[in-house]
UniProtKB/TrEMBL annotation:
Pathway: Cofactor biosynthesis; NAD(+) biosynthesis; deamido-NAD(+) from nicotinate D-ribonucleotide: step 1/1. SUPFAM superfamilies: Nucleotidylyl transferase. It is an enzyme of class 2 (transferase). InterPro entries: Cyt_trans-like, NadD/NMNAT, Rossmann-like_a/b/a_fold. It comes from Acetobacter fallax. GO terms for molecular function: nicotinate-nucleotide adenylyltransferase activity. Keywords: ATP-binding, NAD, Nucleotide-binding, Nucleotidyltransferase, Pyridine nucleotide biosynthesis, Transferase. Residues 44-223 form the Cytidyltransferase-like domain. Residues 1-37 are annotated as: Disordered. It catalyses: nicotinate beta-D-ribonucleotide + ATP + H(+) = deamido-NAD(+) + diphosphate. Belongs to the NadD family. The gene is nadD. Catalyzes the reversible adenylation of nicotinate mononucleotide (NaMN) to nicotinic acid adenine dinucleotide (NaAD). This is Probable nicotinate-nucleotide adenylyltransferase.
Amino acid sequence: MSDIVTGQRLPDSARTRQEPQAPAPHSGDPLPARGDNRRLRIGLLGGSFNPAHPGHILIASRAARALSLDQVWLMVSPGNPLKPRHGMAPLTQRLASVRRLVRGRTLIPTTIETRLGTRYTVDTIRTLKTRFPNARFVWIMGADVFTQLPRWRRWKDVIRTVPIAVMPRPGSNAAALRGQAASFLRHYRLPTGKIRQLPEKTPPVWAFLPGPQNGISSTALRNAEQ
Ligand SMILES: Nc1ncnc2c1ncn2[C@@H]1O[C@H](COP(=O)(O)OP(=O)(O)OP(=O)(O)O)[C@@H](O)[C@H]1O
Ligand SMILES: O=C(O)c1ccc[n+]([C@@H]2O[C@H](COP(=O)([O-])O)[C@@H](O)[C@H]2O)c1
């Protein structure tokens, strides 16, 4: 039985150990309620991961802590619709680069969009919310991507569908905070003191999560390899 999130066949022992947290594979509501009846909070960090680097791990871990997330799915995109295919490593290679950096149970590398057959974020979120009705999803993105958000397909539907956590990135923060998305959403920003409530809020809602920053990028790593 393959797991829709990890794509891996789990040995029985691992399934038993992981079942309290890991989504089960099939329809219905695969996410068990927590012992305290709180819905599972799941961060979605979509990305090309071409390749993954410590900047991804930093923002995923920081979001997990700041938002009390049970899991963060590092969703390796089948292909960012706005990025050229040329120079994009195969999905398996990009997934492997994420797996090499991840430790522990909270951060979960996944190619779930490929299995769901979605590429645009608006479709991914709608499908995930249908498939996992008991989860509370939060979309995590770096400040550079928040600036680009108005170029996404049906971006206003995206922001109406999922709370958004914007993570700081060196050189991108000022532009993000005065960009079109920030301006459109100016009445929907959570103040820093209320960030932990983000997953419980009804969208549109977003927050900028201050914290440590790392200037690393996949582009720099690819260039260094050449
Ligand atoms: N160093 C970083 N600091 C903060 N956010 C980051 C950082 N690197 C990537 N991100 C965020 O992680 C997500 C996935 O990024 P992606 O996989 O495209 O990495 P990248 O380094 O931006 O790649 P590239 O240089 O190829 O564009 C995006 O939301 C992006 O903003
Ligand atoms: O839905 C869109 O139109 C869209 C356009 C550009 C990027 N995205 C998503 O944004 C996430 C970050 O992409 P990237 O390539 O900057 O790491 C990833 O999950 C993409 O699928 C989504």
